Structure to design on (715 residues):
């Protein structure tokens, strides 16, 4: 982590120079930090938002708010307003009582001056500069009135009220800003506090930071997996809901992969670690959250600039207010000062400073809860404007693995493989031959065929004179009889690919199926149709995106027939077939050239060029290979339905940003002229106390509006 110097940082809305990507958040124990020993006056402060999200900051502001609330009661009783309300005469000690109480409140509110000090050093004047000037001017003027009897006006109550409402406003801000920090804490809780390391001397409990790749750890029933790895001994059911979103335990055996944070439901297993610390699934998720915290939407830049401009506008209006009311209008100097202080107080861009950070921090927590990680918050505004979403087919809209879908008997009767009934004797005999040949085959679909055949419990057969036929299939002798297994080209060579068999093949091909034929020298015996099965949730995902007004396209390396079959079944608007991975980005560019804002969703590895070309690249993965570097967002649950959630999130978050900006700017447009006394002629004026209340209420409204994001549904 780079240490920021006072001259290099922004206390209110700027950027803290932190290299989040290089931080190992898994080793950070926020709860064990002693914040009471921090020197806030001399420490390096990050942005105002970073300070607000510090652990325990919300509680600190709330405690100070309660103390000031208690002090305001006697302050009000002994103030000039209290004298009038309770109808008692002034006495000598009254001014000193309110002076002492106000001084204590002033001291409690010194944190605002500490922030202002950094703003001034950086020459980035913002809300703390105005707050400090308003509070400082009011308190100083009141102190002078205490010692100089000729000055008969005091602002102790007004200034103390300002500190009171600012503390409450900062409490709300800190509570909202801690959302993203809480997200990191919640992810850290997914890991155990220690791991059972298997050593030559036995089992040793060690800290997670001590684990290394290649270590063997023991995980007992009810415990969490400390890092990513594979089972070397034992078997158990694991709950991987933190990654998959499915609470149903998954059975894992020797050789199977397990992810960090998975809960071992039963059994005891030994796991060889393959990725630890920041490289593990949990570590990568923490990196994604940290990256999101370090980014800002472009609307934040607008708010920051507006805050800076507003500071100078308020200062100019305050000075003009004093000049015009005292020299032009001829009002008492006290009246002019009162109005000027009200301008400084009411113009504080507190609401403007909160408008975007409170929304984005809550949005980060909301996205994490839904398995969505937005690496660059600036992309939210692009996402909400998207009109085209492009999916990579394999592994995104489909399962990514071939599966047997139909069985074709010798008499060309087609039956589904999805039924629960077991195959008959004739089918079992054919499946036994197919399994024996495919076990020796190197074809990419051989494993899928063998897996299906084994499920039908055929007998094991020996193969003699096995041979691979390049581009066509395989051949071998079983029980003294020669068989061929492969593509229609083998049938054509034997003049068997005619009539009804050829017609059936065309029908299956049009459905996107790959057909494997078993034959002898002079006859067709059996066939299996396979396909990369469409995910059960893909159709719903496409329908949801259409309902949101987006067009959907699909990229695939499959042939035209397969691509069309998938596109028609899912209702996809456009598809691009026979596309090489390195050429996918060209089709993204074509859509962009037509004026579309394009989102690309792929696996984040071979789709990297297309993800980079798209206006927003979204990597989708099952969690064990979270593509941190690919794309601008990651959907860790490997569920295409989360694409629609991402769009809904971006639109709702952007709407909240705009609502907050409009309110914060609109409030100042009306409030500053009112504070300067522009409406005094019609009987309306504002005191510093009312100005403080209105200013804080505007901040409270912004924070509450942002906090409503917590309760929205992304479905």
């Amino acid at each position: 982590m780079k240490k920021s110097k006072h001259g290099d940082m922004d206390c209110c809305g700027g950027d803290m120079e932190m290299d989040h990507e290089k931080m190992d958040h898994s080793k950070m124990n926020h709860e064990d930090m002693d914040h009471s020993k921090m020197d806030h006056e001399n420490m390096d402060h990050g942005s105002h938002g970073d300070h607000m999200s510090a652990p325990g900051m919300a509680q600190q502001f709330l405690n100070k708010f309660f103390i000031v609330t208690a002090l305001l009661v006697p302050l009000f009783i002994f103030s000039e307003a209290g004298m009038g309300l309770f109808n008692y005469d002034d006495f000598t000690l009254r001014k000193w009582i309110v002076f002492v109480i106000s001084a204590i409140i002033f001291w409690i509110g010194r944190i605002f001056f500490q922030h202002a000090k950094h703003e001034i050093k950086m020459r980035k004047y913002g809300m703390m500069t105005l707050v400090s000037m308003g509070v400082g001017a009011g308190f100083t003027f009141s102190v002078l009135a205490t010692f100089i009897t000729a000055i008969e006006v005091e602002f102790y109550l007004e200034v103390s009220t300002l500190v009171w409402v600012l503390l409450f406003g900062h409490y709300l801000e800190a509570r909202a800003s801690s959302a993203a920090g809480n997200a990191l804490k919640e992810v850290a809780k997914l890991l155990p506090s220690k791991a059972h390391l298997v050593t030559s001397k036995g089992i040793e409990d060690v800290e997670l930071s001590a684990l290394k790749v290649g270590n063997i750890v023991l995980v007992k029933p009810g415990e969490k997996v400390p890092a990513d790895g594979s089972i070397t001994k034992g078997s158990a059911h694991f709950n991987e809901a933190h990654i998959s979103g499915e609470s149903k335990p998954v059975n894992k055996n020797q050789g199977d992969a397990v992810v960090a944070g998975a809960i071992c439901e039963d059994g005891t297993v030994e796991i060889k670690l393959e990725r630890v610390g920041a490289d593990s699934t949990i570590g990568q998720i923490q990196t994604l959250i940290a990256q999101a915290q370090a980014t800002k939407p472009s609307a934040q830049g607008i708010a920051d600039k507006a805050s800076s401009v507003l500071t100078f506008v308020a200062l100019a209006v305050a000075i003009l207010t004093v000049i015009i009311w005292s020299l032009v209008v001829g009002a008492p100097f006290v009246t002019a000062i009162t109005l000027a202080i009200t301008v400084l107080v009411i113009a504080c861009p507190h609401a403007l400073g909160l408008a975007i950070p409170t929304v984005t921090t809550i949005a980060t927590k909301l996205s994490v809860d839904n398995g969505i990680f937005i690496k660059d918050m600036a992309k939210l505004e692009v996402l909400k404007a998207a009109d085209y979403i492009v999916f990579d087919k394999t592994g995104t809209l489909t399962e990514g693995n071939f599966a047997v879908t139909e069985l074709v008997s010798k008499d060309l009767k087609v039956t589904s493989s999805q039924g629960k009934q077991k195959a008959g004797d004739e089918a079992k005999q054919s499946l036994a031959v197919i399994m024996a040949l495919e076990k020796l085959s190197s074809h990419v679909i051989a494993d899928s065929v063998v897996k299906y055949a084994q499920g039908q419990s055929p007998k094991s057969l020996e193969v003699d004179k096995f041979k691979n036929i390049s581009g066509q299939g395989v051949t071998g002798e079983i029980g003294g009889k020669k068989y061929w297994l492969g593509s229609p080209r083998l049938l054509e060579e034997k003049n068997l690919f005619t009539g009804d068999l050829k017609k059936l093949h065309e029908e299956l091909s049009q459905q996107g199926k790959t057909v494997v034929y078993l034959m002898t020298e002079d006859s067709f015996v059996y066939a299996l149709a396979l396909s990369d099965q469409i995910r059960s949730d893909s159709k719903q995902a496409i329908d949801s995106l259409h309902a949101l007004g987006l067009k959907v396209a699909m990229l695939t390396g499959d042939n035209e027939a397969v691509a069309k079959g998938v596109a028609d079944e899912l209702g996809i608007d456009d598809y691009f077939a026979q596309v090489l991975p390195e050429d996918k980005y060209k089709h993204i560019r074509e859509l962009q050239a037509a004026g579309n804002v394009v989102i690309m969703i792929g696996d984040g590895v071979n789709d990297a060029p297309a993800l980079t070309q798209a206006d927003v690249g979204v990597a989708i993965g099952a969690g064990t290979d979270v593509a941190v570097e690919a794309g601008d967002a990651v959907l860790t649950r490997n569920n295409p339905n989360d694409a629609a959630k991402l769009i809904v999130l971006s639109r709702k978050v952007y709407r909240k940003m705009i609502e907050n900006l409009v309110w914060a700017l609109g409030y100042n447009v009306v409030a500053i002229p009112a504070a300067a006394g522009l409406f005094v002629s019609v009987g309306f004026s504002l005191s510093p106390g009312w100005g403080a209340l209105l200013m804080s209420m505007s901040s409270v409204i912004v924070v509450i509006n942002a906090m409503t994001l917590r309760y929205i549904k992304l479905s």
Remarks:
- The chain has four domains: 6-186+290-360+659-708, 212-275, 371-398+535-644, 400-533.
